[in-house]
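Hello again,

I reread your note about wanting to compare the complex against the isolated chains. To keep things tidy I'm splitting this into two emails, and this first one only covers the full assembly. Below are the input lines as submitted, including protein chains and any nucleic acid or small-molecule components. They are followed by the predicted structure of everything together. The single-chain runs will come separately.
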Amino acid sequence: MKMKILWMYHDLMDLYGDKGNIQVLKRRCEMRGIECQVDTCSLHEEKDCTDYDLIFIGGGADKEQGILVKDLLARKENLKQAMDQKSFVLLICGGYQMFGQYYIDGDGNRIEGLKFFDYYTQSADHKKRCIGNIVAECELEGRKIRLVGFENHGGQTHGVKTPFAKVLKGHGNTFQNGYEGFYNGQVLGTYMHGPLLPKNPEIADFIIEKALARQYGKVELVSLNDEIECKAKEIMIQRCLGGK
Amino acid sequence: MNQLRLYFIKGIRWVLVKMGRGGSLPGTIALKLDPRILSKFHMPKIVVMVTGTNGKTTTSNLIVEALSACGLKTIGNRRGDNLREGIVTLLCANADRHYKVQADAVVLEVDELTVSRVFKDLSVTTFVVNNFFRDQLDRAGEMETIVRRIESILDDYQGHLILNADDPNVVRLADKALQASVHFYGVDKTEHSLVLSHEASEGKFCPRCQSPLIYEYYQYSHIGRFHCEKDDFGNNPLEIEVSHYDEQAGTFTVDDTVYPAFQNAIYAIYNCAAVLCVLKVNQLPLSKAAQVFSSFTLKEGRNEEFDLGKKCILNLIKNPTGANEVMKYINAFDYSRNILIILNDHVQDGKDVSWIWDAQFEMLMNEKTDIIICSGSRAYDMALRLKYAGFEHFEIIEDVGAAAARLKEQNKESFVISTYTALQPTRAILRRLSK
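Full-complex prediction:
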């Protein structure tokens, strides 16, 4: 088996260690004997998104986001085709925002989004950001999973009809929102850095299964020893929620 | 009333110093009593302020020593108390009853985020900015925010502005400082300069026109010689140009004069160039700096040695760039070793530890490294960083004391790298284990 990942704007959307997600996906595939190819795609590079099982965009600064938006919008049709052909999409922070209607940055500039979904993002007051450790709970195909991460975003994302997770501690899509991210079965957008996947191995495996499904249908992944991952997560949950 | 307050603060500081405690508590109290106290001091003719992400403490300490060597009575916040409270503490301690600062020169290391809150009150005459790297995003926010805040105070600044010519985010400050005397320093290509960089995360685009910047070479991270083909951004004449850095000999050359490097590392050469530039624009003899460079010793937690039976070297890490440079330093040693990494996530460390995924810990994963012990409040996060890079020989011991004891028990040369809040406790533990 082989999984192909397209890591878009790896050199621009690279602000909060989100590259760790790629390392985790690759390694968890390889530990199970699944080959994992990671290709990068930056400005003006020709890549066909429909070739890939998983498309990933991380978080970046406002400035970088403004620079790449033209390039991204030019790929809209190609991305649409890829999604129609069942590529899975993982988006963190800035990447998540850009799949919505638009983003109004801290200076009031309106950056158009890909408009695949209804949600839209407005920057909060210049000095206010949602910052801190976050604990949330999601339900993926009937299974409840607790997640930990670190959020650090000024952007307030409104109009999310299908959030990814319920916030137990932290902010989420807007200040004290109660809900975090976006998930529609094929596109997962979230504000959770940390990075997201090292301490949430269940999510990593879920994404691998979803991505592999494009080529191989339902795949049963061998379970791995996740003792350290679970302990790291548990420490953060304990710290944020106490005995709850 | 003002005088009474000042003497009250001096008294508190005197008591604290007698108790063997430094710190910026007197400044905190002074600011409570008088929030405008900073604007009351009469500053001397030379006021040097140093800011940037990495190397401010070392650079400002070098400047203090160089100015002293020139015969000027110089004071500075030498211990790195670089917030407003620390500056107030220093000035209170050294002011007479008319708030006149009793010195010929003041050298202030100031946190990047604090600069805009204190700059206009301090009659700065020489302002040095050495570099901007990604650092504690949860506390500082995006780099753009920091740079803009510093830009905002430069519009009417008329003193000397000393800038690292090899960092695009520093160079852009010149465009906002239209009334200042701007001077640049830089380091020419060395044998270790790279044409391509895997470490650079900033400096990709011209701040004026957003075109991609062209790099002739990189020194480390995004520091290097660059220019914009469209608008010439980056082509600046250098006031201090290090024309040759001889790593073998530990010397560098400026205008045909050879200087000793106080530390054999490229970033240290940049610090030296900044110091020389401060002397030059203040018309002081550069030869005095040479004396300082040859005798200067680094501060606590900078290549600090302990004897645990076998040699143990401690270093502080704060952000990806600094961590990468420490790991390059460790790799320059040929012997096999154990490594202890202490990762904390308190406010001063940055509560967000995601930066460890941006630092290249892969550099430590080679045949010379026997085991890596992960410790501190985020020991498990560090372990995951190593695990997913494919490294298996790690141990997790959250308690720093136990981790250090384990290191000693191994009886092997070792390196310890620690984040900020773990540094002093770790030093105390290593000292105890050295006995």
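For quick reference: The CA atoms of residues 100 and 118 of chain A lie 6 Å apart.

B.
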